[in-house]
Amino acid sequence: MALFRILVNAAWGYGFKLIVAIVLTPLIYLGHYVIAYYLKKKEVVI
Question: What separation in angstroms does the CA of 34 have from each of 14, 24, 37, 40, 42?
Fold first, then answer.
């Protein structure tokens, strides 16, 4: 029974981290694009 609880807890932890990684990856790329666009725009103005 204790081994089962450990495995369930490990599966939930892994699944949660996987979902967070999948959700955050597009947001990181979006942030990178926005920063690059802002810096390029700022360089052109100067």
Answer: 30, 15, 5, 10, 12
pTM: 0.64
> How many other C-beta atoms can be found within 10 angstroms of the C-beta atom of residue 17?
10
Q: Which residue's structure tokens are 């939930």? A: 12
What are the tens digits of pLDDT across the range 4-46?
Answer: 999 999 999 999 999 999 999 999 999 999 998 888 876 544 4
CA distance 3 to 42: 57
